Amino acid sequence: MGAGFKRELLAVHHAAYLLPFV
């Protein structure tokens, strides 16, 4: 659990945020 985990979490968050807008 390090930068990779945080980066993946951010990617999922961004995807979930942009998914309904696209």
Helicity, in percent? over 70%
Proportion of residues in β-strands: under 5%
Nearest-integer average pLDDT: 74
Report the structural category: mainly alpha
Number of DSSP-assigned strands = 0
From the alpha carbons, calculate the radius of gyration and give it in angstroms. Answer: 10 Å
Please mark out the parts with pLDDT under 50 across 5 or more consecutive residues, or reply none.
none
In short:
The protein is mainly alpha-helical and 22 residues long.
What does this molecule look like?
There is one protein chain. Helix content is 73%, strand content 0%. It contains one helix and no strands. The relative contact order is 0.16. The protein has 22 residues and is an all-alpha fold. It has one helix at 3-18.
Core attributes:
22 residues, mainly alpha
Question: What's the arrangement of secondary structure elements?
Answer:
Elements (H helix, E strand, L loop, with lengths): L2 H16 L4
